[in-house]
Amino acid sequence: MNKKINRCLLAFCSILIFGCVSQQEMLDLQNRLTALETQGSSNLTSYNQVDTRIESLESQLHHIKQSLDIVEKQFREQYAGIKANSNTSRHEIRQITGRLEEIEYHLKKKFHLLKQQKGSPSQDNVPIEGILGRIQRIENYLGFKDNQLSATTEPGMSTQKSSVTNATPQTPEDEMYAKGKSAFDNKDFETARIQFVNFIKKYPKSKQADNAQFWMGEIYFFEKWFEKAILEYQKVIETYPNGNKVPAALLKQGLSFLELNDKTNASLILKELTRKYPEAPEAKLAQKKLNEF
Asked: Which of 103, 144, 152, 214 could be joined to 132 by an S-S link, Cβ 3.0–4.6 Å?
């Protein structure tokens, strides 16, 4: 645009110098100069408007960026809150699940007791009887040392032997233990469980405390709650490491894992039994079981 103006000015100057131009031509040249100046001014205004528009857009982009930063911060805070709530919910779900499993166990136990009271045959009675017989034979073979009658009786064997063999308790401690053991022998596991729990709480240093804890494991073993039985046997091992029931607890732990088809843990525990108590009768049974698988 400036070049056009310069050319017009040059032409205008040439005409003035040489004086070979008419008045009409002079007017035309002036009009053209005026038009060019007007157009240049208009273009300048357009450029200014473009610059203003660019500045406006930059300002808007800045505000948008600030808004995005705020939204991102809020999202991170909300995500942290959601994650914390999720962890809390998972913990509550685990607690509820454990409670439901406990309720289910007690309901099943009550149902079986009701069926037995009504005289209807229970499908669980047959395997439990079989297990009781096997445990009786094992304990007879091992020669468990206990002041009371063995934990089990052969299927169909009268429990009258328990009342004949047990001597009259001379102390409250002996009486409480005898009640729990008598209930255990008569398969009244709920009563036995209560007696043994109270006995361990009241007489934790008693010479019969490890026996009471071992029978707790046996109760859950007979009820086929093998996971719980494993935990109860573990209490014998950890709480009474010098007691005479530790080898038996290890053996029954291994058998419990076998019932759960967990041969890996069963093998580890039975090997530990043979290593720590190689002379114990339980070690022979453990080695025999290891040889089987």
From this structure: 152
